[in-house]
Specification:
The complex is a heterodimer of chains A (379) and B (396). By secondary structure, chain A is an alpha/beta fold. Chain A has 15 helices and 16 strands. Chain A has a 7-stranded mixed β-sheet with strand order 10-9-8-11-13-15-16. Chain A has a 5-stranded parallel β-sheet with strand order 3-2-1-4-5, sandwiched between helices. Chain A has a two-stranded antiparallel sheet with strand order 6-7. In chain A, helix 5 packs across helix 6. The longest helix of chain A is centred in the middle third of the chain and has 18 residues. Chain B is an alpha/beta fold. Chain B has 2 domains: 128 residues, Aspartate Aminotransferase, domain 1; 236 residues, Aspartate Aminotransferase, domain 2 (3-Layer(aba) Sandwich), CATH 3.40.640.10. In chain B, 42% of the residues lie in helices and 16% in strands. In chain B, strand 4, helix 5 and strand 5 form a beta-alpha-beta unit. The longest helix of chain B has 20 residues. Classes of the chains: A alpha/beta (379), B alpha/beta (396). The interface between A and B is medium-sized, with 25 and 33 residues.
Chain lengths: 379, 396
């Protein structure tokens, strides 16, 4: 029997209904304002759908490793999951906390879970990713106020379908970004999304091309290798150009493969395949640009949402972009990531700059060694 | 102990394929590939061969092969550039050129060898290759061997192609646009007329792989360029003798310059032993048949129209096919696999095309209609479709 971890954040999503834009640190307030729990019912809907989908297929039997009460066991029982397949690995107190989530995840992995499903929002995703430490893939059942991170299924029942596909070996493991809004700032009317980490998740393998796909089907790993060769060549062919590499797992893996020590979440600078500066802030970038008249920025879209600027890379300010020139922005994505990202977006905080991008309508996206594809960019 | 086990990785990789049901399970034909064949000991109606016109069984084609063995032997003895260039090869190439209304042609070991050998010689550093996202794997591999910048354009989308042409126009030295003529999974036809028109504006070379259009489309089966009346705008036509022409081998047709260049540069051509005399002679005979017996192409189309019309009237979804390649859309992979198994039980050989060859919800049975099928064969196959369609609740 396959072991799957299942962790529910029972208070996730409660803030949204009462206008609190998130539940971080304000769960009591939300409850006082009459917020109804939404994570439990959604977790139960997921489990019910999965039971229905798997009832005639012995190969889809799952042993659920979960937390006590509302953090997993209760919604599973509510959906009709049989008692002998539920294993409680962590029992929370009366009032659940982020620490319960982390301890639950750690216990699931400790008992051999191969995949972890969690039910919650971006805040829960952060806690789960932190505890999972890239050991196993994680997949979110959406129940939060905000779901910016790239590892949520679009609905609880889709999460059930994805689990079935995963158990049948039809999904690949890829990387996703964990993003969260700074809720303190957001409640004051500021929109500030930060990239917190990356995690392993499930991705639908997309066809790179048709024809004899059995041969063409290129693994995510091979594609990243190809991209590394592409950029290594580019850096060497333009030894006078300063390349600024944006945050995220795509660029991190490219840099690592070339042998450049890159920060995962920061903007780093490279000249001729050598790292010249790391984790730059806006001022740092502008200082570098003073010494390098030729510069290019390499960014990768946030999966699904498609932002290439203005999310997770605010150090690339309008002033920086004007100096580099919008034509010198290079977008890179693996074909699988691009396929789940229908539209590219920018939010530079400078309408004229945004317009410069929007007017182009399509941008080239590098998807392999010397290989690119035009992809729409819209408001 | 040796340092490493040289081959254990193979078993591991193979077992992983088997675990995901991605391994090929080979079926065995006992006898010729014919409209009714014996497959794994069972007599079946053949709906998945590429032998569109049934020329592999044509008496003239078979006779030509036998005669060539008598006069020229079983093998050619060498590669073409050294001592393996026979009069039969030269004759075949003249006949291809005449049939295709081109100046010259070059015969390759296969269509795959044509793409893999020629494409890398047509574009390099500083050039751009624009290629349809659903092009055949042999094109993809040919493209991978070049140093050109590659742009993948949306399937059959001339607007996206034009956008890409405008983008590469400022820096590309040469531009090569490559498309399949007919796409093998869906049976749809590339808009080769429009592709040639926009390509011409930018001075691009247009390269059409017409493996599934040859012997099927155009005047007397001359292919997709003839179908759209744009032969003079297509610089490179690649074709194959392994499908409608019933034998084996690929070719490129175009100008004399193309032939001269290709035979001096294509490594798959220069370094492969040449085709045996029987193959070259049989291919020439197949062209003879196409030129003198127009009834085969006509029969292919009347069979195709009948088969498609009946499937649609039963309530099956046949996708966007415009050619004898007729997919029957079934949704999920399990249904498609089950459907194919049941068809085989009922004496119809048609293979399922499932994920990951097509998207998960687009699993299908791919039928390829054949000119050699009689009306009663088609009716028998259609009756099986109707029966199983109802049985598996695909039809109401």
């Amino acid at each position: 029997m396959r072991r799957v971890g299942f962790v529910v954040n029972p208070i996730a999503g409660m803030g949204g209904r009462v206008g609190l834009k998130g539940t971080d640190g304000v769960a009591n307030e939300a409850q006082a304002a009459g917020a109804e729990p939404i994570a439990g019912p959604r977790a139960q809907l997921f489990a019910r759908t999965f039971l229905e989908l798997s009832k005639h297929d012995e190969s889809l039997r799952v042993r659920w490793q979960t937390c006590g009460r509302a953090m997993g066991a209760a919604p599973l029982r509510g959906a009709g999951v049989s008692e002998e397949t539920i294993e409680v690995v962590h029992t929370p107190g009366e009032r659940t906390t982020a620490d319960d989530t982390r301890r639950g995840v750690d216990a699931c992995i400790g008992r051999g879970a191969e995949l972890l499903l969690f039910c919650g929002g971006d805040g829960t995703a952060r806690d789960v990713a932190e505890a999972a430490k890239d050991r196993i893939p994680i997949l979110g059942i959406p129940a939060g106020v905000k779901m910016h991170s790239g590892l949520f299924a679009v609905s609880p029942s889709v999460a059930a379908h994805l689990l079935v596909s995963y158990l049948r070996g039809q999904l690949r493991i890829g990387a996703a970004e964990i993003l969260d809004l700074d809720e303190e700032a957001y409640r004051k009317g500021e929109w500030r999304v930060r990239l917190f980490a990356t995690a392993k998740t499930l991705v639908e393998p997309n066809l790179v091309a048709g024809g004899k796909v059995m041969i063409d089907e290129v693994s995510e790993e091979a594609i990243r290798g190809e991209l590394a060769v592409h950029f290594s060549e580019l850096f060497e062919n333009e030894p006078d150009t300063l390349f600024l590499l944006g945050p995220g797992s795509t660029l991190n893996s490219i840099a690592t493969a070339i042998g450049i020590d890159k920060t995962l979440l920061g903007v780093d600078a490279v000249v001729g395949s050598k790292a010249v500066a790391k984790d730059l802030n806006e001022k740092g970038i502008l200082d570098l640009l003073d010494h390098h008249p030729k510069a290019k920025l390499v960014v990768s879209p946030i999966g699904a949402q498609g932002f290439i600027l203005g999310r997770g890379n605010l150090q690339v300010s309008p002033a920086v972009l004007r100096r580099i020139g919008t034509k010198n922005v290079i977008v890179v994505a693996t074909p699988a990531k691009l396929a789940m990202t229908p539209i590219l977006r920018v939010d530079t905080d400078d309408p004229a700059l945004d317009d410069e991008f929007h007017k182009r309508e399509y941008l080239f996206v590098v998807i392999g060694y010397r290989t690119s594809k035009l992809h729409p960019i819209q408001r | 102990m040796s340092k490493r086990d040289p081959t254990s990785w193979m078993r591991a990789e193979y077992e992983a394929l088997v675990a995901q049901s991605l391994d090929w399970k080979l079926r065995v034909l006992q006898g010729p590939s014919a409209p009714r064949s014996v497959v794994d000991g069972k007599n079946v109606i053949m709906l998945c061969s590429n032998n569109y016109l049934n020329l592999s069984n044509h008496p003239k084609v078979k006779r030509a092969a036998r005669e060539a063995i008598k006069t020229h032997g079983a093998g050619s003895g060498s590669v073409r550039p050294i001592a393996g260039n026979m009069d039969l090869h030269e004759e075949l190439e003249r006949r291809i050129a005449r049939f295709k209304h081109r100046d010259a042609a070059l015969f390759f070991m296969s269509g795959f060898a044509g793409n893999a050998g020629l494409i890398p010689q047509l574009a390099g550093e500083g050039d751009a290759i624009l290629t349809d996202e659903l092009n055949h794997g042999s094109i993809i591999d040919g493209v991978r061997l070049t140093k050109a910048q590659r742009v993948i354009y949306r399937h059959c989308d001339v607007t996206d192609l034009e956008r890409a042409l405008k983008e590469v126009d400022s820096w590309a030295k040469k531009i090569l646009v490559i498309t399949d003529g007919v796409f093998s999974m869906d049976g749809d036809i590339a808009p080769v007329g429009d592709i040639a028109r926009v390509g011409e504006e930018f001075g691009a070379m247009i390269y059409v792989d017409d493996a599934h259009g040859e012997g099927v489309l155009g005047d007397g089966g001359r292919g997709v360029a003839s179908h759209f009346h744009v032969e003079e705008k297509i610089q490179i036509e690649l074709g194959t003798f392994s499908k409608a022409l019933g034998v084996v081998g690929g070719y490129v047709a175009g100008s004399n310059e193309l032939r001269n260049y290709a035979l001096n540069k294509s490594r798959t051509w220069l370094l492969s032993g040449s085709h045996p005399p029987a193959v070259a002679a049989a291919c020439t005979a197949a062209i003879d048949v196409l030129e003198t017996e127009p009834r085969h192409v006509k029969k292919l189309w009347s069979n195709t129209k009948y088969f498609k019309k009946r499937l649609v009237s039963m309530g099956f979804d046949i996708g966007r096919s415009e050619t004898p390649i007729t997919p029957v859309m079934l949704g999920d992979s399990a249904t498609a696999k089950r459907f194919s198994e049941r068809l085989f039980d009922e004496g119809v050989f048609a293979l399922p095309i499932v994920f990951p060859m097509v998207a998960k919800d687009r699993a299908r049975i791919r039928n390829i209609v054949n000119a050699g099928l009689r009306r009663e064969d088609l009716d028998e196959a259609l009756a099986a479709y109707e029966k199983i369609g109802k049985e598996l609740k695909v039809l109401a």
